[in-house]
Amino acid sequence: MSSPMLLLPLLLFTLNSYSYVASSPLYETFVQCLSKNTKNNQISNIVYSSQNPSFTPVLQDYIRNARFNTSTTRKPSLIVTPLNVSHIQATIICTKQFGLQLKIRSGGHDYEGISYVSEVPFIILDTFNFRSIDINIKDETAWVQAGATLGELYYKIWQTSKVHAYPAGVCPTIGVGGHISGGGYGNLLRKYGLTVDNVIDAQIIDAKGRLLDRKSMGEDLFWAIRGGGGASFGVVLAYKINLVRVPPIVTVFSIDRTLDQNATDLVYRWQFVADKVDENLFIRFLVVPATIQNRTTVKVTFNALFLGDSNTLLSVIKSQFPDLGLTKQDVKETSWIQSVLYWYTLPIGTPETVLLDRKYPGSFFKRKSDFIQTPIPKQGLEGLWKKVVLGEAGLAFNALGGKMSQIGETETPYPHRNGNIFKVQYFVNWKEEGIEAEKKYLKQTGSLYDYMTPFVSKNPREAFLNYRDLDIGTTDNGKNTYNEAKVYGLKYFKENFDRLVKVKTAVDPENFFRNEQSIPPLVY
Ligand SMILES: Cc1cc2nc3c(=O)[nH]c(=O)nc-3n(C[C@H](O)[C@H](O)[C@H](O)COP(=O)(O)OP(=O)(O)OC[C@H]3O[C@@H](n4cnc5c(N)ncnc54)[C@H](O)[C@@H]3O)c2cc1C
Ligand SMILES: *[C@@H]1O[C@H](CO)[C@@H](O)[C@H](O)[C@H]1NC(C)=O
Ligand SMILES: *[C@@H]1O[C@H](CO)[C@@H](O)[C@H](O)[C@H]1NC(C)=O
Ligand SMILES: *[C@@H]1O[C@H](CO)[C@@H](O)[C@H](O)[C@H]1NC(C)=O
Ligand SMILES: *[C@@H]1O[C@H](CO)[C@@H](O)[C@H](O)[C@H]1NC(C)=O
């Protein structure tokens, strides 16, 4: 596009259409291309250039990590907010024609912001207008579009039935498009597995602009978009999911234990039980630095969801994890939908409509992940506490096992199945702007991650795709070679990486759908 011969007609065009104040050469020609490919001249309403006053709000509406919300963050050349399938098809065709990169965004929760940031000139295709949810309670299934949030899905399920649910993430503002395609998990995973273990059909628009369903895309591509990430393969429009059954009454608790209250012994013992206990019970524990009576120490919080009543829960804990000292006063019986709010740290009794709120209180943050396959010795835990008290970063240990262990490693691209006790998340949030603050906090998660090396999975050191972490390897956005991709690919997918490459090679050999951690085609 940089040759003078090409620029001249573009400039003339802009001068001619002087009445469009909010226009740029790219905007004009892109809108023309879209109109031509959709036979629809209302198209200008769905394309935003940086001169449009709505550009910044539309961009920022689905930015969740303040690190990528700064004046120096690379901005898209255009944002397209399609209203129907033909708009998406035309956006793919035109973005390809213009030689730009396409970033697909649904809920914008990507930890590294790769759905709305790029190092090369790019366009954002934002699916937030695609948010319909159609529940068929007789079949116990639903079609849910990519731009719906988990909160909207949970709310709609609850409106339809008080004994159904869908096993997905904890944060209600997460988008379906990124979350399901990345193999999302939540507190129902020990009973029902991951999002992708409960997907039965999908609609995707491929690099040629074709709208495909499970039958027409074939089982290989359908396999790939259940955990391999959508963004390497096409624009996911919708998933058909199986709803799962939950009892009308569930039980939750959240209890803190400090080091003085034997937190070390508790964590140590829990490691031998977490993945083996009754699969109706899910417990996550968080390890954070805390100040108690002017002393810096470590606080461990056990958060639980039990698919059953409180008496049954108390007897399960009494026989499997008596050291926790759980009492009747610690636990609360409630409905599944209220347990969703409780896990989102809202008090039980909060109106369910808060699940429809798309606003998210953003902050600066960093996340990393690990998998634990053997219990950490007590000395190892004590060493970890010494690191935790030095900073603000913490760790979340999510129990696995149950259904997760009954599904084979190659059934979906998500490989971290039997033999894993915990998925670990390293987390740090901060409020201070600037590169110095960022350096300080990234060093904290980095130091915890380094410390954990001897205690976590090895060769490869496994990682969870939905906990996007660019530290574990990236590809040059333009080139995306197999050898670069293999570094992070084996961590996210183990032996499934090569099958993902095969699928990619078959469906997108020109590598149109690419990003910092995408799956490359073999011949490119
Ligand atoms: C506060 C918070 C809490 C979280 N909690 C959990 C949790 O409990 N469990 C869990 O598993 N994860 C959790 N995550 C991670 C989350 O699941 C992933 O970031 C997920 O990918 C987000 O999906 P999204 O659509 O919101 O994100 P986006 O940033 O829009 O997309 C993420 C990735 O998917 C691609 N993508 C998005 N939409 C489409 C589409 N329609 N077609 C093709 N590709 C697409 C994007 O290009 C990008 O690569 C959490 C994240 C945050 C910020
Ligand atoms: C991004 O910045 C705008 C102001 O420029 C602010 O309103 C918004 O809350 C910010 N979002 C995040 C996630 O930091
Ligand atoms: C797509 O959306 C546009 C704008 O709302 C509308 O004019 C057009 O009829 C729609 N096409 C289809 C196939 O729904
Ligand atoms: C901690 O453990 C010791 C020894 O096992 C026990 O005596 C003590 O009561 C425990 N304290 C708490 C608060 O559980
Ligand atoms: C904590 O420190 C403050 C100021 O140093 C002091 O006033 C307070 O009494 C201390 N509290 C405890 C519980 O030691």
From TrEMBL:
Domain spans labelled FAD-binding PCMH-type: 72-246
InterPro entries recorded: BBE (IPR012951), FAD-bd_PCMH (IPR016166), FAD-bd_PCMH-like_sf (IPR036318), FAD-bd_PCMH_sub1 (IPR016167), FAD-bd_PCMH_sub2 (IPR016169), Oxid_FAD_bind_N (IPR006094)
Cross-referenced SUPFAM superfamilies: FAD-binding/transporter-associated domain-like (SSF56176)
PROSITE patterns: FAD_PCMH
Keyword set includes Flavoprotein: yes
Recorded metabolic or biological pathway in which this protein acts: Alkaloid biosynthesis
Essential cofactor(s): FAD
Transmembrane stretches, start-end: none
Keywords recorded for this protein, A-Z: Alkaloid metabolism, FAD, Flavoprotein, Glycoprotein, Signal
Superkingdom per UniProt: Eukaryota
Keyword Repeat on entry: no
Signal peptide (UniProt feature, chain positions): 1-23
Pfam families: BBE, FAD_binding_4
Stated family: Belongs to the oxygen-dependent FAD-linked oxidoreductase family.
Protein name: FAD-binding PCMH-type domain-containing protein
Organism: Penstemon davidsonii
